Amino acid sequence: MKTLVATAAERVFGFHPTSRGFGWVLFEGPFAPIDWGLVSAGDDKNASCLRRLERLLDRFAPETLVLEAFDRQTTRRARRIADLCTAVRRAADDRGIETAVYSRAEIREAFAEVEARTRREVAEAVARHLEAFRHRLPPPRRPWESEDARGALFAAAAVVLTHHRLGL
């Protein structure tokens, strides 16, 4: 990936919700992840996720929060996930954090130069470009297996890299 236009000190927080919680990555400039994690949610998943996210936002104080498009008209996201993403944007707005939302098409466009089209190919491209993530890449998913939770880390990183490539 080339032609990145981010400033070195900008903190960008990538967020990717899953059916079990969310993955997040904090970058300080392009190709510079400084922290990341996976969050598992309890019974009230949205409330649990939102509380955990708010603590992360307060702790790290990023300038920008980025996530993948979640509107139900153009994506196949579950209503619960769409509602969570709406609440996440509101939490960022309440803290004065800029938000950016990128569609799957924009993420594919950002990774087109390395010919990554599918989620798996994008995750592999992220692993190639971010040494800290290489050993976290889950094995390819078999059709009968559910998605590995670590995939959320790569999706969060991909949307941050998309932001650095297309959005600034």
Would you kindly provide a written description of the structure presented here, covering whatever features stand out?
- The protein is α/β, with parallel strands linked by helices and 168 residues long.
- The protein is 40% helix and 20% strand.
- It is built from 5 helices and 5 strands; from the N terminus they run βββαβαβααα.
- A 5-stranded mixed sheet has the order 3-2-1-4-5, with helices on both faces.
- It is globular and about 35 Å long.
Strand order of the largest sheet: 3-2-1-4-5
Tell me the number of strands. 5
Helix tally?
A: 5
Structural class: alpha/beta
Radius of gyration: 15 Å
Q: How would you spell out the order of helices and strands?
A: EEEHEHEHHH
Q: Please give the share of residues in helix.
A: 25-40%
Low-confidence stretches: 1-8
Largest sheet: 5 strands, mixed
Measured by DSSP, the beta-strand proportion falls in: 15-25%
Overall geometry:
globular
| Average of the residue pLDDT scores | 88
Distance between the amino and carboxyl termini: 15 Å
